[in-house]
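Predicting holo structure, cytidine-5'-triphosphate bound.
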Amino acid sequence: MKVLLAVGGGIAAYKSAELARLLMQQGHQVQVVMTAAAEEFVRPLTFAALTGRKVLTNLFAIESAIQHIAVAQENELLVIAPATADLMAKLAHGLADDILTTLYLAFTGPVLLAPAMNVNMWQHPATQANLATLVKRGHTIVEPGSGYLACGMTGPGRLADPEIIAAAIAATVESSAHPRRDLEGETVLITAGPTQEPLDPVRYISNRSSGKMGYALAEAARARGARVILVSGPVHLPPPHGVEVVAVRTAAEMREQVMQHLPAAGIVIKAAAVADFHLSKVPEQKVKKTAARISLELDPTPDILAELGRKKGDFLLVGFAAETQNLEQESRRKLESKNCDMVVGNLVGANDLGFESDENEVVLTLRTGETIAVPRASKRDIADRIFDEVLKLRLALHATDGR
Ligand code: CTP
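Done. Tokens:
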């Protein structure tokens, strides 16, 4: 995302350098703009070095008379940190006497403010009235923290930690991407990642699933307002913000957790790559390489998706099919044999998509007989597309069989 980071003139301006670094690390493009007062605290060169972009400081030094309008238009989020008492007053009243305030008026996207000032200045009715105006305008406020302030006083006024501001930015980015909270009130149960089936205390059979598709689905559902329960096999991914993660290892553990959480769920998505076979009696001790050759006798794991399909109550069931060939036929066969409402099919092995990739390309096979090809996109975008189609499908199924 293209972020305009506006730095006000307060001692906390130095913390905005850390914020700029965090935003860059998270993959955002950051354009810093500073007030003249901010330049008294931190030199623009610091921000230029961190962001790789020239810092905008003077309205009259920019290249053309309308450049500030172009800057306001090409950025997607405006973050004002620290927002001083003076700056908040100017913004509340629409003054535009420098580059920062002019950009603010020209900017039409979401705005986030992280105020920082002396405790008395923060608590002053004038500042609180300006704050109320800015909140009413729909801006997000990252409340200042309490503690020892540079002025020697203690109380609220300290700029929130850069990590907290960055998390608020991530949440604002999410909600601006999803102004429709169309999964509000829903509980979505998602499985993700591989399972590991032990062969002995130190070895296991598994597969190449990274869990990225299932985690992207969990993030998308959460951003659209759902309560999300994510039953996850072992993966190297951070738990998505606001999602209830249930960590499992084997297919049997995954089955148990899915069944336990099923009664709460209205939508169940089985993105996990469950191992199809396991060793039903795992040796208690490590197997030694004494024999020249050994063979493994494996038994099938419980087919969780098929069991869900047999139960089929009020929930909408989505399965996955990872295939190396005949994607559409295999998806349709799985939809029917496992009694799903939708199967998300993706070709694996043939290209650089699927598994560890951040992108995917899928075919959605629906119970209504329809097939929808979703072209290559990020797993997150694919996740959103899946939820778009799940919601449409549910309406269509309600209309036809009154479920
Ligand atoms: N699945 C499951 N439990 C299993 C195996 C698979 O819930 N023990 C689910 C997966 O989560 C996925 C779907 O079934 O949603 C498809 O997995 P796949 O292994 O391709 O299904 P199979 O029926 O085993 O297909 P195949 O005939 O290709 O082996």
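Residues 183-277+298-401 form a domain with the Rossmann fold fold (CATH 3.40.50.10300).
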